[in-house]
Amino acid sequence: MVTGFFVFYRLQIVSRQLVKSYSSIIKVNLSPQPVTVQVYPNPVHDIITISFNSKQPVWSVKLLSLQGSLLKSYKVEAASHIQLPVQW
Fold first, then answer.
1. pTM above 0.70, yes or no
2. Phi (first) and psi of residue 20, to 5 degrees
3. By the 8 A CB rule, do 5 and 31 touch?
4. Cα–Cα distance between 2 and 36 in angstroms, integer?
5. Who contacts 6 (Cβ-Cβ below 8 Å, separation ≥6)?
6. Residues 6+ apart with CB under 8 A from 16
7. Is 54 exposed, middle or buried (0-12, 13-18, 19+ CB in 10 A)?
8. For the segment 36-57, what is each residue's pLDDT rounded down to a tens digit?
9. How many CA atoms does the CB half-sphere of 64 hold within 13 Å?
10. Are strands 47-52 and 37-40 parallel, antiparallel or unpaired?
11. Residue of 20, 37, 25 lying closest to 81 (CA atoms)
């Protein structure tokens, strides 16, 4: 399950007298809804199916080898279930 990522913010405040102070650290969740991703079949032969439960309009899907090198990259728009051809 992919649960999004967080960004931490802290402000530096400088007064007219040039005295610096800092705000408290704020944690912002940029993806408040958990996203469940399913990839099947395993092992894949010719078509890989990816399902996810997100309303995000655009996804970037990258297929990597076991060594981490990029095999194929896809841009997917407005879908929750995709099938991608795979040729090794």
1. no
2. -90, 140
3. yes
4. 6
5. 27, 28, 29, 30
6. none
7. middle
8. 788 899 888 888 898 877 777 7
9. 6
10. antiparallel
11. 37
